[in-house]
Amino acid sequence: MIIRQLSVTSECAPFVKTGGLADVVGALAHVLKEHDVESRVLLPLYRQISHLSAGAKEVRDVGSKFGGPVRILSTQASGIDLLLIDAPHLYDRPGQIYLNEAGADWTDNHLRFGLLSWLGAEIGRLGVDGWRPDVIHAHDWQAGLTPVYARQNEDAAPPSILTIHNIAFQGNFPATTMGDLGLDPKGFTQDGFEYFGQISFLKGGLVQADQITTVSPTYARELLTPDFGMGLEGVLAARHTDFSGILNGIDTTVWDPATDPVLAQTYSSRTLAKKAVNKGALLDRFGLAPDPSAPLFSVISRLSEQKGLDLALLALPAILDQGARFVLLGSGAPELEGGFRDLAHRYPDHVGVEIGFDEKLAHQFQAGADATLVPSRFEPCGLTQLCAMRYGTLPIVSRTGGLADTVIDANAAALAAECATGFQFAPTSVDGLGEALDRAMEVFGDKKAWQRMQRNAMKHPVGWDHSAKRLVDIYKAVQRR
């Protein structure tokens, strides 16, 4: 039986992306087809993706809503069926999709993503162009009010699922915006979408969704504790029977070193020696001195304390003094950007830094580095370590969230059993990261052991096969309810 599913999301790869959310939604749109799920993605038509409207079909004129005219357009691109929200007054603007050109949140983000949520519920209730979903899958706070709006018309709404990709972002807005959002004031309670006197998009969704998921089993357990729940651990504890962690995956057709068109040299686990060509190309790009005996470490990340990059700044000099190389691709907190630029100035032959983000360069980093650092203080799932393993680049990760679920630590037992795929460390501290870097340096000196770990990592399942089946089981279960 075909299940019709609507994904409600603020971003989707390859069209618009600020982080892993986009990659997950884009990958799911493809993989769910293999499990008899007919998926459509509801996405705002931002200025950055305005080209997608060319040739698109108008399937509904919503009229004036949330301050201006709104239409829904239907199109297909990159093999994904899209429903685009054409609302120029909310989405046709410069800057990032969440931030203005000054780097601050758009002051009307409550309207921009309130409309996304409202339309998700409306399409669930009424359908569009002769198509109506059997289940609504909302992603993160930006779509968090979708289950709330659906419940306001409960007689006609299909069941809804809300996935938490990062609970640190909750979509909290003043209570005075309730009227603008068309929310029923009866829901502004502790048992509804009220949160310390504000409206919380995420809390509203957690209360009203039929099922809640998050992106790894360990993160699901962590979210039930005060250290990780960000104030919502009690809400999740109350919904624990409807809450589960389903591990994210990556699109293994996009992330494949054997076919990746942007690499200097493609390779596989059977032709691992060819990976060295990519390392040489990456060193050349940054003008770093080549040394086959020196490992090349990398970071591909948003630069923030959550990601533990302040710890990396303090831990890296010890291995750089031993001859290691290091390259970074990312942007974020100005103090961290400055810190890594200063590190490159102090070690001009050993450190290369690229502030910003480039998708092609990210692939080249994964292929060229020997190891990649993901020292996050918390990490719901993490995709960087999955991509790294796919490319035979060993991840060095803190023991938290999805990092703990996906990387097999190179401890003595795992090395003896020849099953290690990377390096875990705890606690998340400078000393903890430093110890993991020292272990990586030691194993790198044993070429046979390192190559065995690389092959283990490349064979490790990092795709969506198992998790997609679990997700489809949830779709079926909420339909039966």
Automatic annotation (TrEMBL):
It catalyses: [(1->4)-alpha-D-glucosyl](n) + ADP-alpha-D-glucose = [(1->4)-alpha-D-glucosyl](n+1) + ADP + H(+). One of its GO terms (molecular function) is alpha-1,4-glucan glucosyltransferase (UDP-glucose donor) activity. One of its GO terms (biological process) is glycogen biosynthetic process. ADP-alpha-D-glucose binds at K17. Pathway: Glycan biosynthesis; glycogen biosynthesis. GO terms for cellular component: cytosol. It holds the Pfam family Glycos_transf_1. Residues 287-457 form the Glycosyl transferase family domain. Its EC number is 2.4.1.21. Keywords: Glycogen biosynthesis, Glycosyltransferase, Transferase. SUPFAM superfamilies: UDP-Glycosyltransferase/glycogen phosphorylase. HAMAP family: Glycogen_synth. Belongs to the glycosyltransferase 1 family. Bacterial/plant glycogen synthase subfamily. This is Glycogen synthase. It comes from Litoreibacter roseus.
